[in-house]
Amino acid sequence: RHPAPSSMAWTMLRGILATALGQFLSGCYADTPGFRAPAIPLLTTDPFTQTWIRGDTSTSRQVSHWDGTEKQMSGYIRVDGQDFQYLGACTPPTVTTPGPMKTMAGYDISPGDEIDGPSIGEEECNIRCYNDPTCQAYVMSPGPRCHLKSGVAPVVSSSGSNASILTGSHPKCEQGRHARQVAVHILP
């Protein structure tokens, strides 16, 4: 009989097998056009402590936990006195007051990609639109019902609806220091 391997040996063996399997699978899909893994593990210490990069680049999205919860994790490096961010997306500040917009009474933006349609007032709808980076306009319909839109055309006549197009800009990312964001491409 052989003696039972220690837990450290099992851990090393599992790591080697996982690496080999990963290399095998990446080789299998290397020639498959359009294949993209949904996430890349960034840090894994046990089944419940895992952080993942879910974007196409290391700075396109915030790092997240295995359950999808975003983690505020950033990586910076200084080269020749210039700061670069290589990990994590910056998070813009939350808007708390309505921003500027152009309102067109009696119009709708249709069909448009509707982001969501909660039953809230116009001020809250405006704030939600400014806090959503994909929102370019919103339409208030009877109810009141807020329809966030990702586009500004086509504008069509609609009694009872009022279309509002944002004229200000969405809040910019605040970074602790002035750093240029560089993307590390993770997947093809």
Write the layout of secondary structure elements.
Elements: H1 7-29, E1 40-46, E2 49-53, E3 64-65, E4 75-79, E5 82-87, E6 101-109, H2 122-131, E7 137-141, E8 145-149, E9 155-166, E10 180-181
Structure in a nutshell:
With 188 residues, the protein is an alpha+beta fold. Helices cover 18% and strands 31% of the residues.
Q: What fraction strand?
A: 25-35%
- The assigned structural class equals alpha+beta
The largest beta-sheet arranges its strands as 6-9-7-8
Bin the helical content: 10-25%
Sketch the topology as an H/E string, one letter per element. Answer: HEEEEEEHEEEE
Average per-residue pLDDT, rounded, comes to: 75
Taking all Cα atoms into account, the compactness measure Rg is: 24 Å
Low-confidence segments, given as residue ranges, are none
Number of strands: 10
Query: How would you sum up the major sheet?
Result: 4 strands, antiparallel
**Total helical segments:** 2
Distance between the termini: 48 Å
Tell me, briefly, the overall form: elongated
Describe the structure in your own words.
With 188 residues, this protein is an alpha+beta fold. Helix content is 18%, strand content 31%. It has helices spanning 7-29, 122-131, and strands spanning 40-46, 49-53, 64-65, 75-79, 82-87, 101-109, 137-141, 145-149, 155-166, 180-181. It has a 4-stranded antiparallel sheet, with helices on one face. The chain has a 3-stranded antiparallel sheet with strand order 1-2-3, with no helix packed on it. A 3-stranded mixed sheet has the order 4-5-10, with no helix packed on it. A hairpin with a 2-residue loop joins strand 4 (75-79) and strand 5 (82-87). The mean pLDDT is 75.
